């Protein structure tokens, strides 16, 4: 699938699912509290589909898919038929209004648990956290060696590369020394300390990872598979051949081999490749071809693939998956609040924020990696929506909850004037946040 089309498609799927679930929370609780719902809308603006339900509610899908709303019978928006006065929103007790407003984020939290549960049930294909360290990096200073396997980060056991990097990313925000337990290629375990206090404050997380210098261990220089009919196979190369040199230059690993071919092919696509087969050295003359593969842009190829990295798949039965879902939701929630706190205090960069473009790209990438990854992505976005909506910003659910909690304490509603002032402040805050996220998305496309 084309990356732009795929990003748009999976963004629409993501927003459609999560917005519908969020608004259904408001709708369902409002109906249970006896409030008449006039309209249930997924999206804003002009309707592209609508119908009237048996309950009199107008259900619609609108043109702008960046949200949705549930319109209830509300005396603040016009005259209410006396016969329907008991179904009007503001006539309900304050605790019911609190329940209706909190239901949207609450249903997003429920969806988060469900999506994580599905992720653990079907499994999320990943690779084992076998690592190496770039020279003169923080990881190298900490004592990371090529082939080390991460066993735990800050005392929490790790089984996959992505989980390990998520844990380290969260530790980077605190910029404090972090314990890393690894098992070396000799089978011995070591306890290392990543000196993350050396990271400068306020930089984006990708720059922190560059300074950390921890990467997946390089793949060995072996032609694991040779594509029939391609230059390497025509020259006599076979699957399992060890790649020793390119035009007399030694090869350290498969990436080094690929980089040498990519660098030298424009000068001359004809290579003398030294290999080792069954312990015997051999030389093959291979002429690279300028071609496209699997829809990607044209490049110099000889038709070999590296060995697959060690795979890691975490998959549980229904009961264990629910326990893991609860743990993941709790950890993700605390990590999100930790990041928000660090950004508010200036310890973490606001460049870590992503907007619609960033979400669309991640949606497409996660969908292409498999259903388990997409469930994980949905869970994280749903949790983020729940937390964002609970922030005490007027125009968001959290702002209305703040008004109703004040009413609960003082015994009377917040004045209409105070509410209007809060709405203006809230709109400014919200548009500022959206603008910053959009700027970050655009800035990532620009050359550094």
Automatic annotation (TrEMBL):
Q: Which cofactor does it need?
A: Zn(2+)
User: Topology relative to the membrane, per the entry?
Assistant: Multi-pass membrane protein
Q: Which domain of life is it from?
A: Bacteria
Question: EC number(s) on record?
Answer: 3.4.24.-
Q: Where does it reside?
A: Membrane
**Which Gene3D superfamilies does the annotation name?**
2.30.42.10
Gene Ontology cellular-component terms for this entry are: membrane
Q: Which PROSITE patterns match?
A: PDZ
Q: Locate the transmembrane regions by residue number.
A: 6-29, 98-120, 373-406, 418-439
Q: Where is the PDZ domain?
A: 193-251
Q: Which UniProt keywords apply?
A: Hydrolase, Membrane, Metal-binding, Metalloprotease, Protease, Transmembrane, Transmembrane helix, Zinc
Q: Name one GO molecular function term.
A: metalloendopeptidase activity
Gene Ontology BP annotations: proteolysis
User: Which family does the UniProt entry place this protein in?
Assistant: Belongs to the peptidase M50B family.
Q: What is this protein called?
A: Zinc metalloprotease
Q: What organism is listed for this UniProt entry?
A: Dyella japonica DSM 16301
């Amino acid at each position: 699938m084309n990356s732009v089309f795929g990003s748009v498609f999976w963004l629409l799927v993501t927003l459609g699912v999560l917005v519908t679930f969020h608004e259904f929370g408001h709708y369902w609780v409002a109906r249970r509290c006896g409030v008449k719902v006039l309209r249930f809308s997924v999206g804003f603006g002009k309707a592209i589909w609508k119908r009237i339900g048996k309950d009199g509610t107008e259900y619609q899908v609108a043109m702008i898919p960046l949200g949705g709303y549930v319109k209830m019978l509300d005396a603040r928006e016009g005259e209410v038929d006396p016969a329907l006065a008991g179904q009007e929103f503001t006539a309900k007790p304050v605790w019911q209004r609190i329940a209706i407003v909190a239901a949207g984020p609450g249903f997003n939290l429920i969806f988060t648990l469900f999506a994580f549960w599905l992720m653990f049930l079907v499994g999320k294909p990943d690779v084992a956290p076998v690592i190496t360290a770039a020279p003169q990096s923080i990881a190298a200073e900490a004592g990371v060696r090529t082939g080390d396997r991460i066993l735990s980060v800050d005392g929490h056991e790790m089984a996959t590369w992505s989980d390990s990097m998520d844990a380290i990313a969260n530790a980077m925000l605190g910029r404090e020394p972090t314990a890393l337990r690894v098992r070396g290629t000799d089978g011995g375990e070591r306890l290392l300390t990543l000196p993350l206090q050396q990271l400068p404050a306020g930089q984006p997380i990708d720059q922190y990872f560059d300074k950390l210098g921890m990467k997946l261990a390089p793949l060995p220089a072996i032609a694991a598979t040779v594509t029939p009919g391609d230059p390497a196979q025509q020259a006599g190369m076979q699957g399992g051949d060890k790649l020793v040199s390119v035009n007399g230059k030694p090869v350290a690993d498969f990436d080094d081999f690929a980089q040498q071919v990519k660098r030298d092919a424009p000068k001359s696509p004809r290579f003398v490749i030294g290999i080792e087969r069954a312990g015997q050295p051999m030389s093959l003359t291979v002429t690279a071809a300028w071609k496209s593969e699997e829809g990607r842009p044209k490049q110099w190829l000889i038709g070999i693939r590296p060995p697959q990295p060690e795979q890691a798949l975490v998959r549980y039965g229904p009961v264990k998956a629910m326990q893991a879902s609860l743990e993941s939701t709790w950890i993700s929630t605390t990590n999100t609040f930790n990041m928000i706190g660090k950004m508010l205090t200036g310890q973490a960069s606001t460049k870590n924020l992503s907007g619609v473009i960033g979400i669309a790209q991640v949606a497409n990438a996660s969908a292409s990696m498999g259903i388990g990854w997409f469930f994980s992505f949905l869970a994280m976005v749903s949790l983020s929506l729940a937390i964002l909506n609970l922030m005490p910003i007027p125009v968001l659910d959290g702002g209305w909850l703040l008004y109703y909690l004040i009413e609960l304490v003082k015994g009377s509603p917040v004045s209409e004037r105070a509410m209007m002032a809060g709405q203006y402040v809230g709109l400014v805050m919200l548009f500022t946040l959206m603008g910053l996220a959009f700027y970050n998305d655009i800035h990532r496309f620009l050359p550094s």
